[in-house]
Design goal:
Elements (H helix, E strand, L loop, with lengths): L7 H22 L2 H8 L3 H13 L12 H14 L6 H14 L16 H14 L2 H5 L3 H11 L16 H13 L5 H4 L2 H6 L18 H13 L8 H9 L20 H13 L2 H8 L11 H24 L10 H7 L1 H6 L11 H12 L5 E2 L6 E2 H15 L19 H4 L4 E2 L4 E2 H12 L2
Antiparallel strand pairs: 1-2, 3-4
Helix pairs in contact: 3-4, 4-6, 4-20, 6-9, 9-12, 12-14, 13-14, 14-20, 19-20
Length: 450
């Protein structure tokens, strides 16, 4: 009988499982006091690794010359999640560098003099919001950036990453995310975005980068987050999306990005955030399933009253924004635009009405024991550390720790944090933007009045 062919992916999967099992077997075989040492979030070593990277990178990083705003974001965001900040000199240097990346016609390039690109625009804006100072926020030319976004708008309804560049879900998310947080979102930018993203939801339930491609964790996050920000998330097939994402957590505890692929620490955020976002979409999910709010009976009038309560909350959110920044002359009809622009604030303040769709403690275990090294995080055992995985492992750790928290700004309970609470708890993020929550609130307040 012919033996079953073993693919390279299957060989790699078995190797990763052996490595992870070895780590877990050792961890659970040692005394509790030794476990706590191994499990501890190595804050000082991570901070040192990150600040050194922000000051100077070696010649091997020349391949990332067109991604320098991303390096700023990965590093600055990671530092903030650790509850730390950079000194005044590094902050000013970062602002000055990102300002030189800002194109004279709008948007941010990968480096000074390069072509503006939606991905690096997202990274640069998130970096400046993470720094959070008036100098950082005021350096963003919102009017020209809005013009750049419009130039990237495609007749299909989606966006292109740069002039003549690829048309995909990532472009839709980065454009809508930036426009939303800077308070420059409008009907022209939103028009047709939902149609494009909807065409990318696959038979599996996840979302692909473009129509006809394979469902992918990064694109699924981008598509779901963008649909929430434009208030069209009800158009996605959420039960099918849930069915896809819950099977992406592997036996190792971490997430894979696609079906039959290896676990990767960065998907702690990309897939973990998808699950976290769905926790706040219970009304839409229940409606699509034909269930009542308590999942006990078929839909009845109670679901309509729940929806009415949510609509009332939306109205209250819009009024709150107008109290902060009263409408100016000629802006009397701005309530609809305000409601769209402030979807991010409304969403994060919804109560979480579902339990996590994955094992949040098991994910934290994978991140801390298998992705963490002495200064930085990695994809999986056997790989090297880098700033990208450090950023998204810490972001995923935050998502997992706060996935049981009912309200924004409320700390998780000690039982929801794997390891020593005082050492391992990281800062909370806004799941739609992947920005530390307090920095999001500060930016929202700043840009709401412009």
């Amino acid at each position: 009988m012919e033996s079953r062919r073993v693919t390279k992916t299957l060989e790699d999967q078995r190797m990763v499982e052996r490595q992870v099992r070895g780590i877990y077997d050792y961890f659970y075989s040692i005394p509790p006091n030794s476990q706590s040492v191994i499990l501890e979030l190595q804050r000082d070593k991570h901070f040192d690794f990150l600040t050194r990277g922000l000051r100077k990178l070696g010649p091997l990083f020349s391949v990332l010359d067109a991604n320098r705003p991303w390096l700023c974001y990965w590093i600055l965001h990671s530092i903030t999640l650790l509850g730390e900040s950079v000194d005044a000199g590094l902050e000013n240097d970062s602002i000055d560098f990102l300002t030189r990346c800002q194109d004279k016609d709008g948007g941010y390039a990968g480096g000074p003099g390069q072509m503006p690109h939606l991905a690096t625009t997202y990274a640069a804006v998130n970096s400046l919001i993470t720094l959070g100072s008036p100098k950082a926020l005021s350096s963003i030319n919102r009017e020209k950036l809005h013009a750049f976004l419009l130039r990237m708008k495609d007749p299909s309804g989606g966006f292109r990453m740069h002039d003549g560049g690829e048309l995909d879900v990532r472009a839709c998310y980065t454009a809508i995310s930036v426009a939303s947080i800077l308070n420059i979102v409008d009907d022209e930018l939103i028009h047709g975005v939902g149609n494009f993203i909807l065409s990318c939801q696959t038979y599996e339930g996840g979302i692909a980068g473009e129509p006809g491609a394979e469902a992918h964790g990064g694109y699924t996050f981008c598509g779901l987050a963008a649909m929430i920000l434009i208030n069209e998330v009800n158009r996605l097939d959420l039960p099918r999306l849930i069915d896809w994402v819950v099977f992406r957590q592997g036996v190792e505890g971490g997430f894979q990005g696609r079906t039959n692929k290896l676990v990767d620490g960065c998907y702690s955020f990309w897939q973990g955030a998808v699950a976290f976002l769905i926790q706040r979409l219970n009304l839409v999910v229940h409606e699509q399933l034909g269930l009542s709010n308590d999942l006990g009976t078929e839909s009845d009038d109670s679901s309509e009253s729940e929806l009415s309560d949510e609509e009332e909350h939306l109205e209250g959110t819009s009024s709150h924004v107008q109290e902060i920044c009263p409408p100016q002359e000629g802006q009397e009809n701005a309530s609809d635009t305000t409601k769209i622009a402030d979807t991010g604030y409304e969403f994060i303040n919804r109560p979480i009405a579902m339990q996590p769709l994955y094992d949040s403690m098991y994910l934290q275990q994978y991140v801390l024991l298998c992705s963490q090294v002495d200064g930085g995080f990695r994809d999986k055992p056997g790989k090297g550390r880098d700033h990208y995985h450090t950023c998204y492992c810490l972001s995923g750790l935050s998502i997992a720790q706060y996935s049981w928290t009912d309200e924004a700004d409320s700390p998780p309970l000690p039982r929801d944090v794997f390891g020593l609470y005082s050492r391992n708890l990281v800062e909370q993020i806004h799941p739609l933007f992947n920005i530390e929550l307090d920095r999001y609130y500060e930016a929202r307040k700043y840009f709401s009045c412009l």
